[in-house]
Amino acid sequence: MKHQVVETVTLLNNEQIADNLYLATFKAPLISANANPGQFVLVETSADQYLKRPFSFFDIDKVAQTVKIYYEVKGLGTFYMSKHWKVGQQIKMQGPLGSGFIISPPYHNVVVVGGGIGIAPLKVLIDQLNAQQINFQGIFGARNKNGLTILEHFIKKDYLLSTDDGSLGQPQNVVVSLQQYLQKNKVDLIITCGPEIMMEKIKALAEAEQITYQISYENHMACGTGACMGCTKNIDGVNKKICTDGPVIQRVF
Questions:
Q1: 120 and 90 share one domain
Q2: Where does [2Fe-2S] cluster bind (predicted)?
């Protein structure tokens, strides 16, 4: 949190990946220098939108001084981003914010589980796991194959894929895929992001198996710094501010 800044960044690309799904790249020297996997930024989508929108880092390149966000068009802010943002445009961005993924002490067998737009923060995490030579398995799911198109931007690996309609991978949800994987493999850390019902089921599964887990929550936010308490969530009987205590919450076994 102490390294956060408000930076005027430059939009380098705003690529449509699939229906209503976009990948935006920004030149952001200050934010990229201090960003870590699992953290997020607040982005000013347009001048007439009072509140900035929170987006997790999809990619962080400290050498190129760039960051990327992966977003779905769901409301006025993201609609404006998809239709009106132009390459070269100057945009205000605040960050990096929040607490990211924890990959220490070093884990040996990690499972990364993403569902839908919750896949967004997991690409840069996988880059880190790969750089640290930590063994990992990715399990990803979406409503249909369009929701998995973004995996073309991930490092190449035999990921376990599933879709609700069976258009790509297994016709099942990622929780079933994770259960099947745990039956055959030793795992010491599960990391997940996606729909809340999916994450709650994975949380219950990890607790039953006594496997350390990290959940990246996606809550509506206003200030992003813990002042307004608008993103407070009760987790295991304790109120957590997702913007500062999270978005990544860990339980260690």
A1: no
A2: 223, 228, 231, 243
If asked whether residues 27 and 128 sit together in one domain, one would say no
Say yes or no: 134 and 225 in one domain: yes
Q: What Cα–Cα distance (Å) separates residue 57 from each residue in 71, 121, 135, 174, 197?
A: 10, 6, 22, 22, 22
Would the annotation count 29 as a binding residue?
Answer: no
> According to the model, what pLDDT value does residue 196 have?
94
pLDDT digit string, tens, across residues 44-83: 998 677 788 999 999 999 999 999 999 999 999 999 999 9
| Cα–Cα nearest to 14, from 76, 78, 102 | 78
Annotated binding residue at 228? yes
78 is in an annotated binding site: yes
CATH of the domain at 215: 3.40.50.80
pTM of the model as a whole: 0.95
| Residue 231 labelled as part of a binding site | yes
Under a CB-based contact definition with an 8 Å cutoff, are residues 115 and 144 in contact? no
Tell whether residue 32 is among the known ligand binding residues. Answer: no
75 is in an annotated binding site: no
193 is known to lie in a ligand binding site: no
